[in-house]
Design goal:
- The structure is a single chain.
- This protein is mostly helical.
- It has one domain.
- Helices cover 52% and strands 0% of the residues.
- It has seven helices and no strands.
- The model has no long low-confidence stretch (mean pLDDT 87).
């Protein structure tokens, strides 16, 4: 676990991460259990932190403790905060796009 990121969050936060490094060290079993869950972002974390942390703060914890889940967790955060529209790719229709083409203007289509 990258302690430097967690420690930095504790030092630079507005108080919501206060004492988290010591709490994780003292309650390692509970935190390890939380980290090993299939989706820790949606589950109750140990200590007083569920009441203190915002959904964005929880993203930081997921980045620290389960970085392989960050992309999936970010999608859940965006859906909850902005809505489903912002994570779905736009529907493309080549006929409509072809009508807007001109011989002197290139079309760049990025697949991701």
């Amino acid at each position: 676990m990258p302690w430097d990121i967690l420690y930095s969050a504790e030092l630079r936060s507005a108080g919501q991460f206060e004492g988290i490094c010591a709490h994780v060290a003292e309650n390692w079993g509970a935190w390890k259990s939380w980290m090993e869950q299939e989706d820790p972002y949606v589950n109750q974390m140990p200590g007083e932190y569920p009441e203190k942390l915002t959904p964005f703060d929880k993203l930081i914890l997921v980045k620290v403790m389960r970085p392989e889940l960050l992309q999936q967790t970010m999608s859940k955060f965006l859906i909850a905060d902005l809505g489903q529209y912002f994570i779905e790719p736009p529907a493309t229709n080549m006929e409509i796009m072809y009508r807007d083409l001109a011989t002197h203007i290139p079309m760049i289509f990025v697949l991701s």
